[in-house]
Amino acid sequence: MDASVLVVGNERFLSTFVNQIRYLMSGTVEASSNIDEALVLIQTKQPAVLILQATQIGSLELCSQIKEQTQLGWIYCILVNDQSNISEDERLSDQRPDWVACAEALENGADAYLGLTLTGTGEQEDIEGKRLLRAQIQAGLRGVKLYRELMQTNDVLSTMALADPLTELSNRRAMEWDLPRQIQNALIQSTPLSLIMLDVDYFKSVNDNYGHQVGDRVLQLLTARLQHNLRVQDTLFRYGGEEFVIILSQTNFQEAQIVAGRLRKLISDQPFNIDGALALEITISLGCASLNSEDDLKGESLLWRADHNLLRAKSSGRNQVFGGEDGY
Questions:
Q1: Gap between the Cα atoms of 306 and 304, Å rounded
Q2: Which of 249, 268, 271 minimizes the C-alpha distance to 318?
Q3: How many Cβ atoms sit within 10 Å of the Cβ of residue 181?
């Protein structure tokens, strides 16, 4: 896996480790001797592996800060206690067991803690240190690779869960997520918002007389016509079966009725050509509603009124637009 590594420590630490790490792995290796600068690099470049000098002031705090952030917490953090330039007397004078430092590092979010001696002499201790460092970097890269693959899979599954496979429109679940967001935006910006719910008239007879494949094709052609006659800021959803919902942003009730009337006409005026072998006369019924001060933030009352008005349009003979007597 080609990935980036950021090494953070004082100049002596960087001079010991940066070239060693470049030799041990493929990918980009960057260095920083400043904790604040390192944080900026982490946020902008998001390295796969972060190697911190354990004894540098602020290293533990930086590691902890990264792990607290959802968008950065996947970064693999290795704290390294560099013993390469420490004399035997200095090692003996340090009475704190290494496992205490290791526990402290892990408690603060580190994924690994290493006490290393890299001398560049090719001695056994140097060879073992390089092997351990390489193994930890590889472990980190494996974890990051798995995380990224899971995120990609999750993105695909999320898209599938919110999309209708037949029409390629967003589905009812997506609408139930998007409608509250659009209502909130309309309230904050003091702009109107309207909703159209529409239904294909006598759609069951299409399936009964011509089969479900023809019915599916009708829905696909209907979707294309609707999409080509809506603004970019309008959102079309397949609500279920032959029923669709359109969220009209920055649109008042009178404008929504005009849009609904235009959509009704463009569907009914031109037959649906099914693969060049069949032409069907299709009509739709539509119900309109506009957001008012008494509506709930989820949009349930707004959606209910549009659905109620759709039922009124169908009961009044179909191929009609109904919006209620008071505009709401």
A1: 5
A2: 268
A3: 12
For the range 60-64, what are the long-range contacts, defined as Cβ-Cβ under 8 Å and sequence gap of 24 or more? 60/104, 60/105, 60/108, 60/110, 61/35, 61/108, 62/8, 62/35, 62/38, 63/105, 63/108, 63/109, 63/110, 64/108, 64/109
Mean pLDDT rounded to a whole number for the chain: 87
Give burial (CB, 10 Å; 0-12/13-18/19+) of 13.
buried
Band of residue 268 on the pLDDT scale cut at 50, 70, 90: very high
pLDDT value of residue 158? 64
Cα torsion at 263, 265, 268, 272 (round to 10°)? -50
CA angle 114, 117, 119 (to 5 degrees): 145
Residue whose structure tokens are 């995120």: 151
pLDDT digits (tens, 9 = 90+) for 230-241: 998 999 999 999
pLDDT at 328: 37
Q: End-to-end CA distance of the chain, in Å?
A: 58
How confident is residue 193, by pLDDT bands cut at 50, 70 and 90?
A: very high
Distance between CA atoms of residues 125 and 131, nearest Å: 10
For residue 112, what are the contacts with CB-CB under 8 A and spacing of at least 6? Answer: 76, 77, 78, 79, 136, 139, 140
The verdict on whether 242 is a catalytic residue reads yes
Q: Which residues contact 23 (CB under 8 A, 6 or more apart)?
A: none
For residue 22, what are the CA distances in angstroms to 4, 34, 127, 202? 10, 20, 16, 69
Find the catalytic residue in 242, 243, 255, 281: 242
Residue 118 confidence (pLDDT): 72
Give residues with Cβ within 8 angstroms of 100, minimum separation 6: none
Q: What distance in Å separates the CA atoms of residue 214 and residue 201, rounded to the nearest whole number?
A: 15
